[in-house]
Amino acid sequence: MTDTKAAAAASRAAAPIDLDALRAKYRQERDRRMRGDGIRQFVELVGDYRGYIEDPDANDAEPRAPLDDDVSVLIVGGGWSGMVAAVRLMQSGVSDLRLIDNGRDFGGTWYWNRYPGVQCDIESYIYMPLLEETDYVPREKYAFGDEIRTHAERVGRKFGLYERTLFETQLQALTWDEDLSRWRVRTNRGDSFTTRHVVMACGSLNRPKLPGIPGILDFKGTSFHTSRWDYEYSGGDTTGNLHKLADKRIALIGTGASGIQVAPLIAESCEHLYVVQRTPVAVAPRGNRPTDPDWVRSLQPGWQEERRSNFQKLVSGVPQPEDLVDDAWTEIMKILGAIAFRVAQEGEKTQAERDLEMELADAERMETLRRRVEDQVKDPAVAETLKPWYRFFCKRPTFNDRYLPMFNRPNVSLLDTGGQGVERITADGLVIGGKEYPVDCIIFATGFEVGTEYTRRAEIEIFGRGGLSLADHWAEDYQTLHGVTAHGFPNLFFMGPAQGPGDVNFLYPADLQARYVARILARALGEGAEVVEPTEEAVQAYVAHFREVALDNIEFYRECTPSYYNNEGDPSKYKGFLSQRYGGGFAQYRKMVLDWLDEGMPGLAFTTRE
Q: What's the chain's average pLDDT?
């Protein structure tokens, strides 16, 4: 940084924050992006849009004979949640299980997301599960997709999951048979079998999200979603060298985590890249580095659980004597979370004083990220357009060291839509602000559905006792015990955030849920119980508790710019990405369910047929 820039940066840092002006700016930017249709603005990927969800690398599935047998446990999903559930079940003595997945291999979101530059933004040592069980330590602090997929294959081989899995198989029907006390299963491969128990492990990031831009189907060039990357078109691989794009004009729609990871690699190879932005993203430093061999040699048994727990507590605001992960997540959460924790423990400030203190800390953090844009982007007008104007918790932050400098390249243009999105797509390109931009290819880096109905994201309707559909049962609000079981849907278990635990590190709660389900099914197996189902009273008691501890953050998210965090500007008390998570925090949830298991699982009925 030059002396002039350094002096300017010091002056900015010393300037006091005008909260009234900042709030007004945040509100203005939010209002520019508000629209009445919320999450309904996204197209369901059916009919003519089906191509955006199909696997570009899959040939016709290898023929196999349809199955008409019976299995003790069916796990729906071959991503990390399903794989961890399978491993924990087997470790608990439940070995008669089957997995199904519509991909060609394990990995879930890491199987589908094979776009160039794909990388996890959670430290690999705490994110990648079953490291100690497989005697593996990741190569870098933040693993790229190839390494994560390879680890999934490693887990699949070690625990014998391949011979238990039906790949390229889509669940089509799941219906409870009262007479048999089993679930009847039908798939797209002609399978029609029965299973005692079903574990729904479909994941939170499994169904691509496509904006309902008029004219998408009129485009005559190539278009695809980042989670269905077309290497036949681009050439290269996940590390880059997209040589087939050398004479291509590319429009990249979306500037979230996927967009900022893939954009620099496209820019290095294509003739011209148009980055289409509706809302600027907060981009913090990545800070990746190779794994230290000396550190690996120092690890003791139990190191991954210790590290996961340490991270989880820190990002929840619980002070720890040491920050084992020490990254951008713990940095901001140590500041903001410690304020809340201190007040809760000592009560030395009023709620209003605490909120003000947290708002100031938040404002300082966001101002640091906005200054980072100024420091890395040479064109002042472009830099201004790239600045994020919202509270830190309004959108999931990103981490990248190449995205902002990319805008200094002559072959990269930022097309800011003023918060309105693309007006329409034509046969030859896209229209923004009344101007058409001809392109050869449109790539949608628009993320995944997270606020739509569970059965839409799972792409299956589930019919429980008496023919009750899960969609109808959950039409107004989720009705579960601990987010895992539901009355009226015997022997059915859910893994995910619907009234369950949430955490920055998605796979830490998934492991807890897997152990939870494994203990229940091990007991059912040991007792010869054919039906496991929570009582209606137990469900209602938990739902009441869930609502009691729910975070009172509706007003906060109403002030946020639209994103999947606030249901695209329409935050809900009961539905939505954040409001469906247990508000008492992961630590409280973990203690609650472990105590419940140790107390004999009260409210969960185990029935043995005469």
A: 89
